[in-house]
Design brief:
Elements lengths: L1 E6 L1 H4 L6 H13 L4 E6 L2 H13 L4 H23 L11 H8 L5 E3 L8 H11 L4 E6 L20 E3 H8 L14 H9 L4 E5 L4 H7 L6 E4 L2
Bound molecules: uridine 5'-triphosphate (UTP).
């Protein structure tokens, strides 16, 4: 299979050490013979911190996004270092480069592309671009909930949702730099228009990546309408 894996920066940098990078690189190395792998890495807390500094310096939203993108690319670079020879060592800045770099047969790791969306959107556009069979989005919660699980005790995990239902659900959420909510709507629109098989799972347990690749039930599956 051709698989795009999105890993939130908050997952990789949870403890600010090498271990998460190493855990994920070990899993990716195991599956890269059998599958063609692309990885999109998020910005996490350092992205939000830098964005807050430049926003205080009166930068516009586009510049704030540019700063966030730079941080995602640093995180991507760190993952390629963990992957060593298994990864193509340059970070693509756009989808065409990602496709070109994948011709080497190595794992391609990238961060953001341009302002006004999150790495969730990047991963879905990439999945569409390379005609991926599966998009796996590893986030800091178990999947899509009926309510924010960090705020509401009665939030329930949704095991299957259509892209249209998901769009309705997330519309109207905040989209300023560094504050994209659970999943950005651009990402869902792409998932919908290209009927991308998508699994959203908790990346704090790297085993969930193995489950998602192996087709075991995990997190929330976005199904076609
Ligand atoms: P992320 O998509 O990583 O957002 O990009 P996040 O919410 O911090 O994600 P986690 O915590 O890693 O899961 C960080 C910021 O970089 C900018 C946005 O401002 C985003 O909030 N960005 C990222 C872009 O503008 N374009 C991109 O393609 C990617």
């Amino acid at each position: 299979m051709k698989i795009v894996v999105a890993i939130g920066g908050s997952i990789l940098l949870q403890d600010y050490d090498y271990k998460r990078f190493e855990e994920y690189s070990n899993i990716l190395k195991t599956y890269c013979e059998e599958h063609e792998l692309f990885v999109v890495v998020g910005g996490g807390k350092p992205a939000r911190n830098y964005i807050s500094i430049v926003r205080d310096l009166n930068a516009g939203e586009g510049i704030c996004d540019d700063i966030g993108i730079e941080v995602t690319r640093i995180n991507a670079k760190v993952l390629t270092i963990a992957l060593g020879d298994y990864a193509y060592q340059r970070i693509p800045h756009n989808f065409q480069e990602a496709l070109e770099f994948s011709a080497t047969g190595k794992i391609v790791v990238m961060g953001g592309t341009e302002p006004a969306h999150s790495t969730d959107a990047v991963s879905s556009i990439l999945a569409e671009y390379v005609k991926a069979d599966l998009l796996i989005n590893l986030t800091s919660v178990d999947g899509m909930y009926t309510k924010d699980p960090n705020k509401f005790d009665d939030a329930e995990l949704i095991s299957e949702i259509t892209a249209s239902e998901m769009l309705d659900f997330i519309s109207g959420k905040d989209v300023s730099a560094g504050t994209y909510e659970f999943f950005d709507s651009t990402a869902v629109q792409i998932i919908k228009r290209s009927s991308l098989k998508t699994i959203i799972a908790n990346g704090n347990n790297p085993e969930n990546l193995i489950k998602a690749i192996n087709g075991e039930k995990v997190g929330t599956e976005v199904i076609t309408d």
